[in-house]
Amino acid sequence: MAGMGIDTPRRRAAGLVCTGILVLIAAAFLAPLVWLVLSCFDSSAQTSVKLPEHPSVDNFRAVMTTDLAWRPLWNGLLLCGGSALITVVVATLAAYPLSRYQSRFRKPFLYTVLFATGLPITAIMVPVYGLFVRLQLIDSMPATAVFLATTSLPFAIWLIKGFIDNVPINLEEASWVDGATPMVALRHIVVPLIAPGMSVVLIFTFIQAWGNFFVPFILLQSPEKLPASVTVFTFFGQYGAVAYGQLAAYSVLYSMPVVVLYLIVSRAMGGAFRFAGAAKG
Amino acid sequence: MAARAQLVGEELAGAAGRTTSPRRARGARTTRHLPLAPALIMLFLFFLGPVLWSVYSSFTNAALTGDGAQNPQWVGLENFRRLFSDPNVTNGIWLTVVFVLGSAVIGQNLLGLTIALLMRGRSRWLRGTVGGIVVSAWVLPEVVSALIWYAFLGQHGTLNQIMKAFGMSGQDWLYSSPMLAVIIANVWRGTAFSMLVYNAALDDVPADVQEAAELDGATGWRRLWNVILPLIRPSIVTNLMLITLQTLSVFTLIYVMTAGGPGFASSTLPVLMYQQAFKFSEVGYGTAISLLLLVIGAVFSFIYVRVLKPEA
């Protein structure tokens, strides 16, 4: 590989070829994004790429209304924030006994959890719809948040158990001797130590839920309860074919939170965040 | 990835060397595991329940409206008989295979590996820029990716614009080659994941191993084939399993870009399942399709767990 050993002209040429191919690949990846960025500042945008003649924030102004953008974004925050919180709390509670106690069921349960992380969630949406109809939970935001939380539970349990495994047990043993219950030990000793990991799981679950279109699309019906992932799509169905600039601006608004969160997490975690991508559904 | 495999390893190895918990009164065995209850209830109600219910209801003629909705009748294997004689389903299975092979196994996997290999020894700045661009395609929400590609591949879209500049004639890609369109969009969306996995794997290949291969006079390709690929084999297997499972259940990207059309030309199993259950109101039949998808996913997921499991 370049940079090691002796630098020969042949190697330099190979390096240039590698750089050239990389630049081409990057350009290909960039092309679709360019359209999005240019169109959101262009009030006469079409599907073709062109520089805005009069760059303006008119598109943003047009979609930044309560009905179009603010309420769906707020709904998304409630839905995804709620589901991420539920996931982290429930997963931490479940991970603690799995990490600390021996039992016959532990290993089968853990393997079942790992197995569940791989199942296509898409495939259970039809029966889940049937279940929600039967329990009269259709169009309920709390129920949808709990369902979203359930879908990310297996992976969250798996990750958080790993974090707890890395906490030495003797700290807890000392507190047990003082008569603390396991739950007190969990709250006062383990949680502060695994807080960074927990916040990564929290943010990651939030990002996942924020991008989830299918679940709210199936389980919610009232327009005033829909999160942005669905309203961007309905906007596209209603005005998208004409107001491409507004569609682009709306898409940028809706994407902003996860892009920012991703940057925060990847900065904080360095490369350790990379495996978390495994749960991207 | 590697981290997960490591977790399994630790889980098996660490079980032996763990200290016992405090001695507690009898009956504590159950209360100790009480914190598991919320997770178990949620998973049973919303995960295992629907799976079992889908097994049951795929033997009935349940429907969203009308007679079947009130009192579903037991129809036995009728749904499955229909399933395997339905040209849309066989077409859907085929399209799903094409989609998974094309966009995940070949597209994302090979492109991700290629980018990771090309990045070896490039300047930090170049690596950061290229990596950043590829990752940003991955970070965007799925609906937005789908809309971007809808615009990009349309009749007056950017791709045709570029082709025209080179004197080629464009076409409405979403209409003429819908599968190719969704495959390319999914490669764009998912390649970052494979790239990150292979970057991490290649970072773990010791430099002296590469040096040694070089002194032996192994040329680039042979070195890649005989030294580097065997060393990162576990990452390749894990990555292939994960992206296969993810790609198997892609719904939004295809639904927003083509809605499964034109006709059923891009109705992979998840899209077909949605169409049957919600567009044609045949929940029983839609559920039978989702069961098929679930079984395929379960097989891959099972292999995946077995692969991660160290020989114990």
List the helices and strands and how they pair.
The complex is a heterodimer of chains A (281) and B (312).
Chain A: H1 9-40, H2 58-63, H3 66-100, H4 106-117, H5 125-134, H6 141-165, H7 170-177, H8 182-210, H9 214-219, H10 228-240, H11 244-269
Chain B: H1 2-14, H2 28-32, H3 37-57, H4 67-70, H5 78-85, H6 87-119, H7 124-139, H8 142-153, H9 158-165, H10 173-176, H11 178-203, H12 207-215, H13 220-231, H14 233-248, H15 252-258, H16 269-279, H17 283-308
CATH overall fold name of the largest domain in chain B: MetI-like fold
Count helical runs of chain B. Answer: 17
Low-pLDDT regions of chain A? 271-281
Provide the CATH superfamily of the largest domain in chain A: MetI-like
Domain ABC transmembrane type-1 (chain B): 94-304
Subcellular location (chain B): Cell membrane
InterPro entries (chain B): MetI-like, MetI-like_sf
Transmembrane segments (chain B): 34-56, 93-118, 130-153, 173-189, 240-265, 285-305
Question: Notable features of this structure?
Answer:
heterodimer, A: mainly alpha, 11 helices, 72% helix, globular, B: mainly alpha, disordered N terminus
